[in-house]
Amino acid sequence: MTSVASQGAVAPSRPQAPAAAKTPGKRPYHNGNNKGKPAKFRKKQQKAPKLNEGSHEEVLMHDIQALLAATKLAAGEAEALARELAKPALPLQGSEIEVEVIEMSSTGDGLAKQKGSDQIYVVPFSVPGDTVKVKVYRHLEREGYTVADFIAVTKPSPLRNDSRIQCKYFAQCSGCQFQMLDYAEQLKLKKNIVVKAYRNFSQLPRELVPDVLDTIGSPLEYGYRTKLTPHFDGPPGAMRRGPRKPLEERPPIGFTPKTTRKVLDIEDCPIATDAVRKGLKEERERMETEFVKYTRGATILLRESTQRVPKTACGSGAAAVDEAEIAAAAAATTPASSSAITVETDTYTDRKTYITDNNATSTEYIDDFIFTNPAGSFFQNNNSILSPFTEYIRQHIMPPPHLLEGKKPIRKLIDAYSGSGLFTITQASLFPGGSIGIDIADKSIEFARTNATLNGLKEEQCRFIAADAPELFKSVAQYDPDETVVVLDPPRKGCDASFLRQLLEYGPRRVVYVSCNVHTQARDVGVLVRGEVDGMEGGGEEGTRYEIESIRGFDFFPQTGHVEGVAVLNRVEL
């Protein structure tokens, strides 16, 4: 039976006017002089500043402000003032105009101008150098930009090659932005997204931020995504009170287009794996007859799961795992289809199926490591890049030799936000003092412990504990910070102030920060380098607590504007 999962591959909300930027700093001094005064005479109490959210709108606004500033600088002060005074009226909403795309924003949208105007137009599915016809959707006059809908390319950029596009829904579905671009160009754009993230969100002087390294590409540019969550809407009036009526016909099943909130009916998705694409086809066929069972909309989970059958004796893997345990893990998988996509190698056969039940168990392999997860839970959705990605972490999780001279050896790993144990397990062999994974979710810890067993790791090598954020580092107080590396892989919102404060107080020798949102990563790394959050200070001669060794992007989602970030930091010795 199809179940409801969290929505994936949906359009980002149209840009809204962002709130004023808030930056981390010291808590304002307050001497209590408001006590006893009438309300109208009391001074406003200032709250401690919140960390920047790194939202779509905030990221976009940074790029727009930079482009506006560059335009004024290029024109000169006098000319810029004259152009501002002679500013033409903006085109009517709903009108069609032609604009030239100047640059690519960090949200994956083009930033364009109309001839004779400095107004910025945000245009999806465009690349620098394109001239495109757009439909004006909404003016945000105070912010100085307009949101526009893409209609057509009237003069293509040298960067554009539409023969590269492999999806017939491209420029309608919001899931991909870059299919018209050469892959090397996509990687350059994603490197620049990381560069701008640290420029706009870290609040660090440039000399404290090393050059961003080239983005590591995905081995698969299409056919890589192991999870899709297409959805459909309920019948008209389903939100009203009263008895719910079932659907009268099979609804559109797919994703939200860029230009409307209605679901775009999608038959196929070429960035998904073959097993997931098969699942999309079969679920659409199932809905041809079963739509009458639904009185409201739902999201369909399509998650790939792998059953691996060795062709030779087990024993070449990470820990010569018991075949019976692997078979038991595979048996726990509940495929939605009896047929499978078969992948043959010299040493094993992989049978890949898809799962639609959130509570079923999916199985995934990274090299010789096996991971089981609740099918509806989070796990990286591009298996093809996980081998080079975890190998990169393995090569950089330890300090370089010159930082080890005369120091205690690194013996322990703390994997914060550990989930089902990706880093705790794949890096465990490097740490003679053991690796420990910490997560707030009991279910994640349960699966992480199972995964450690499946990979032949004993408790003294690899263990997991559930801990709430305020108690996180109390649970590992026995770990000497001079001998410890901390790996962070938080959700998109990044680390909160409480966590960062605890991390600074604990002070591990080395930090490896992995993030699916390079903007909140840059914000948090800035906090760690300054050694200050909510007024708590620490650090060395320059007032810093950590220094950045390296920053690099990984392309987990080719054809899209998304980039994963890895930052490596070392503690500044006092």
UniProtKB/TrEMBL annotation:
Catalytic activity entry: uridine(54) in tRNA + S-adenosyl-L-methionine = 5-methyluridine(54) in tRNA + S-adenosyl-L-homocysteine + H(+)
PROSITE patterns registered for this protein in UniProt: SAM_MT_RNA_M5U, SAM_MT_RNA_M5U_2, TRAM, TRMA_1, TRMA_2
EC category name: transferase
Residues of the TRAM domain: 90-152
Region (Disordered): 1-56, 231-257
GO molecular function, one term: tRNA (uracil(54)-C5)-methyltransferase activity, S-adenosyl methionine-dependent
GO biological process: methylation; RNA modification; tRNA processing
Annotated Pfam families: TRAM, tRNA_U5-meth_tr
Record key words, sorted: Methyltransferase, S-adenosyl-L-methionine, Transferase, tRNA processing
Keyword Methyltransferase attributed: yes
Bias (Basic residues): 37-47
CDD domains cross-referenced by the UniProt entry: AdoMet_MTases
UniProt binding sites for S-adenosyl-L-methionine: Q380, Y417, D439, D489
Record flagged with keyword tRNA processing: yes
The organism's place on the tree of life at top rank: Eukaryota
Job of this protein: Catalyzes the formation of 5-methyl-uridine at position 54 (m5U54) in all tRNA. May also have a role in tRNA stabilization or maturation.
Similarity remark: Belongs to the class I-like SAM-binding methyltransferase superfamily. RNA M5U methyltransferase family.
Name of the protein described by the UniProt record: tRNA (uracil(54)-C(5))-methyltransferase
Taxonomic source organism: Bombardia bombarda
